[in-house]
Specification:
Elements: H1 6-27, E1 34-39, E2 47-50, E3 53-58, E4 61-66, E5 69-75, E6 79-86, E7 89-94, E8 99-104, E9 109-114, E10 127-130, E11 133-139, E12 143-148, E13 153-159, E14 166-170, E15 173-178, E16 183-188, E17 193-199, E18 204-210, E19 213-218, E20 223-227, E21 234-239, E22 248-252, E23 255-259, E24 266-269, E25 276-280, E26 289-291, E27 296-300, E28 305-310
Antiparallel strand pairs: 1-28, 2-3, 3-4, 4-5, 6-7, 7-8, 8-9, 10-11, 11-12, 12-13, 14-15, 15-16, 16-17, 18-19, 19-20, 20-21, 22-23, 23-24, 24-25, 26-27, 27-28
Length: 320
């Protein structure tokens, strides 16, 4: 009988077994992202990321939180909608006073109040930062106000569709949706004018410009639409659930992140294939979401929690 060295025998055995090992690994889902939840009394809702920490809207205040607890709070009449961090400040709308508030990040104090008006007093709206400016939908009749952070002055007021509430800045433009007219509007920051409109599905809401496209929640249809930023064409849709009221959306790390109200806490979408990569967490009602490279922040105002998910996503198999 021909004898092989023991090292050869081991090598042959490992080579033969390697495809089986891969198949076994691929069939075993990895552990889900770990949730670290903190109780936030009141109504913790919208999130703005400030480095390793976040700011939250709450009843009568905005709050500054780390992964280990509350750091500060700033009293406001009725903070509402999505906030943004930029120019050393937190920018937050006040739906009762119809103003844009500027809060100093270092001192956690109110540093300026800009009388802009607020388009949606119910609070489903947001403030965004881009092209050296702060932008807020400021009138239900159809206006977006552009604020210069150098002196907190109003740099421009841009005519848009009525009921334009939701904004995102990215890919060189300001983007805005109106749920009643079912349109996405592309606004050129160089001219402060609407340069393109895209018809959308039922009740378009929050949106994000990133990962090569504009992504819009079509809340009434339960879908997320992908829009090409250059042509304005809808290039695909992904069905999430029956509806998407209300939730939140973000982009980063090569993926789209969608906070849902039903079925799970958030959904991870492949922006190229429009495949759903993961449905993470249990159903906790409405809330907000923000992605970071280290993990994902979510709020669940109905159960009074702020959660940190780390890592943000783990693939279900080696094939993904």
């Amino acid at each position: 009988m021909l004898q092989f060295p023991s090292s050869w025998t081991q090598s042959i055995a490992l080579t033969a077994a390697f495809p089986l090992l891969l198949a076994a690994c691929a069939s075993q889902p990895s552990a889900a992202p770990q949730e670290h939840a903190q109780v936030v009394p009141g109504f913790a809702d919208f999130i703005a990321v400030d480095g390793q920490t976040v700011w939250l809207t709450n009843r009568g205040r905005v709050e500054h939180w780390s992964r280990n607890g509350k750091l500060a709070q700033v009293p406001l009449h009725h903070p509402c909608g999505g906030m943004s961090v930029g120019f050393g400040s937190l920018w937050v709308a006040d739906c009762a006073d119809g103003v844009l508030n500027r809060i100093d990040l270092k001192t956690a104090t109110l540093s300026a109040v800009v009388k802009t008006g607020i388009a949606n007093p119910e609070g489903e709206m947001n403030v965004v930062v881009g092209d050296g400016s702060v932008w807020v939908a400021s009138s239900r009749q159809g206006k977006i106000t552009r604020v210069d952070p150098r002196d907190n002055s109003i740099a421009a007021v841009i005519p848009v569709d009525a009921d334009t509430f939701y904004l995102s800045f990215g890919l060189g433009s300001l983007w805005a949706t109106t749920p009643t007219l079912r349109e996405l509007q592309k606004i050129d920051p160089a001219t402060n004018t609407v340069v393109h409109k895209t018809p959308l599905g039922a009740n378009p809401g929050f949106l994000v410009a990133g990962e090569g496209a504009v992504w819009v929640q079509e809340q009434g249809d339960g879908t997320v639409a992908r829009i090409a930023p250059d042509t304005g064409d809808v290039t695909g849709r992904v069905k999430i659930s029956k509806t998407l009221k209300y939730g939140d959306i973000d982009a980063g790390g090569g993926k789209i992140w969608l906070r849902t109200t039903t079925d799970q806490t958030y959904v991870v979408i492949n922006p190229s294939t429009l495949g759903i990569l993961a449905r993470t967490g249990k159903q906790t009602g409405s809330g907000a979401l923000r992605y970071t490279s280290e993990g994902v922040w979510t709020t669940s105002h109905d159960i009074h929690t702020l959660s940190w998910w780390s890592p943000a996503y783990r693939p279900a198999s080696l094939s993904q």
